[in-house]
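So, could you explain this one?
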Amino acid sequence: MSEAPGRRLRPDLPYRRIALLLTGGGALGAYEVGVLRVLERLALAPHLVAGVSIGAINAVVWLAHGRRTAALEAAWRRLRGPAIGLQWVTLALRVAGLFLLAVALLESFLTLVGSRELSGAFWIWKKSSARLDLLSTQLDIVLWLIIAVLGLAVLVFARPIERWLSQAGGASAGGPDSGRRLLGRLALGAALLHATVWLMAWPWPHRFSASAVALLSLAWLASGPGRGGQFLRGLAFGLMPETKGRGLWSGRRRRRVIEELVGSGTPQSLVAPGTRLVMSALAVDSGRVCHFVTWPDWTPAFEARVRESLGELVVLRTPEDAVSAAVASSAIPGVFEPECIDQRHFVDAGGLSNQPLHLALADDADAVIVVLLNPSESPAAGDAPRDLVGLGGRLMELANWRDLQAELRELPPGWSRTGDPARVCVIEPSRPLPGTLLDFVPAQSERLIALGEADAWRALARVGWLAPGVDELRGAPVE
């Protein structure tokens, strides 16, 4: 949306300690860049910027570049999921490779213990028929070993394969104890039966029998509390070797992107006197929302309000600290592994404190701009989410809506979204934004930036923050 003459802040705007709250929402965070573009054009310099999740990343980059959005806009217009560690193809290849490797090794073992030709008929009874069938069994083993090597290769070279593909074509009632006892009896019975027919070389579905023994035994071991069960359950985390099972992917690539963007600006400005920066993350050890702040001289009242809301404060002293806080704030549970800071682990706190209005009030803000990535009215009922990503996005939307309503109800007298000028400016989409939490697509980001800019102009005009002559911005949102 192009800039028009006359778009400026009203000269008599009475607020001098404006807080800007940038909320979380994954790939939808491109919407916030459009809002920041409007603030840049208005030369509106917030006294405090609070960011959560993707909002924290946008905040550190924006402030490192002197409240200019060019670097952010350029980054969002080329940003894709793999750049920040969302390596879906790599994960799929690892699953396929591990599956092939496991099946091949299992089948090689079953070929030995599940073969009539290599059973008692060959080793004990020395029947000639066994020797005649030995070649086919040997070939069976050789082929499964070849599949094992193929699976191992796919597992090890998953990322190079992904890059090549991208370049080529684009991017129970008795409780658990009784259940385990039943599994044990079934495994033991199956093993005794299989051993008998294997040794006697009787006609029998040997491979099926051996498979049943192996699967029942593995299920029994995996259900136990001992070392064997822990080991087998730990094998499942082999799909996520970077994180030791604490998430699908590590935060290394996300950190690298943030470091590059911050480094292309003035990193020291993040902790220099001036605009106050707050980034929030959930401390896994204490369950409190940790607010990383860039100023050490907070007031006792500010600290008391934070602790009252089950939070805690940590001072950021270097630009590297600020980058680590942004990585921690954006560590979506289950998707990314927790970020370790000073031997403590943190994850995204978006579902618990996505728009911390209470922080702005505790810091004596006299007005706030809240940027939402979902409409603030009650979420509309829709079809049930069709996949895990869709369900995660829906739950995040509901959690953020509930958190916002709780924060708005705690506003002091005189604070509202109405007035001329109002103290609370909520910039939000009129309907759910296109895309999903993890849908990082440049074309989609371009559209979100445009929507954020249009909605920002409209919201600022609606609350009376713009100079007279721009009332036409109060119309319906741009499609």
